[in-house]
Design goal:
about 260 residues; Aspartate Aminotransferase, domain 2; Aspartate Aminotransferase, domain 1; four-stranded antiparallel beta sheet; 8 helices
């Protein structure tokens, strides 16, 4: 379980570890609300309980500290496109002596861990992207945090009955905003028409309203959940684009609320 900020509940986690799991897997950074977990503490607790510890570090690469060798992590996975490597390439990192059963056999590639011819162009592309992140990542993360904090402050100031989800000091590039009794999908459509790509906190599947498991887990009430918009920033995002986002988002929320009669509720 997690608390209202999306942080792992330590009491619940402690009880789960008493059941003797062989493997514990926890995201380092949540992709929807940007909550950052204390991997040092959680990984250490898992290992003390006799479990191997895995973390999906995809959203943390280039934005948060990831010194895996010095941390209580046995396995880690990441997707290259999240730090501007080519799509279709990723990494499974395994500490020496950690058991790893191949899921694809028939060849000697990668020390018998994964058979199949290597995709050299994608590997080289990811390697170059990693070099750029090592060189510029820290400075870019600070710049993204300044933009993130500015967007949140301005939207909350200009839109009544709005809130931010997640931790106040969460990941620098992810913003989850909710607007009370306001449908998120029309907001997303309005922003898309202006060339701004965002996602909603709920999606329609086969005509059914499907709520985000993450927002549900943090206890976000339905009247807030349906009006959730997720924004993500990158090292290529500009301040001018952030200004356009804020103005467009504020106007879109007002427009959707006017149509739905929000002011009269």
């Amino acid at each position: 379980a997690v608390d209202p900020t999306g942080t792992v509940d330590i009491d619940d986690y402690t009880e789960l570890l008493k059941k003797g799991p062989a493997l514990v897997s926890i995201m380092s950074v949540n992709n929807e609300i940007g909550s950052v977990q204390d991997i040092d503490m959680l990984g250490g607790m898992a290992q003390e309980a006799g479990a191997k510890f895995h973390s999906d570090i995809t959203q943390g690469v280039g934005k948060c500290r990831l010194d895996l060798v010095a941390r209580p992590v046995d396995y880690a996975t990441l997707s290259g496109h999240k730090f501007h490597a080519p799509k279709g390439i990723g990494v499974l990192w395994a500490r020496d002596c950690s058991p790893l059963k191949p899921f694809m056999v028939g060849g000697t590639h990668e020390n018998y861990r994964r058979a199949g011819t290597h995709n050299v162009p994608l590997i080289v592309g990811m390697g170059q992207a990693a070099k750029l992140i090592l060189r510029d990542g820290e400075a870019e993360a600070k710049r993204m945090r300044r933009m993130r904090d500015d967007i949140i402050a301005r939207v909350l100031a200009e839109v009544p009955d709005s809130r931010v989800n997640g931790q106040g000091n969460g990941a620098p590039h992810i913003i989850s905003l909710s607007f009370l009794r306001t449908e998120g999908e029309p907001i997303i459509i309005n922003l898309d028409a202006l060339g701004i790509c965002c996602t909603a906190g709920a999606a329609c599947s086969s005509g059914k309203h499907v709520s985000s498991p993450v927002l549900t887990a943090i206890g976000l009430p339905e009247e807030w959940l349906r009006g959730t918009v997720r924004v993500s920033l990158s090292r290529f995002t500009t301040e001018e684009e952030c200004d356009l986002l804020v103005d467009s988002l504020v106007n879109s929320v007002r427009s959707v609320r006017n149509i739905s009669g929000y002011a009269n509720v």
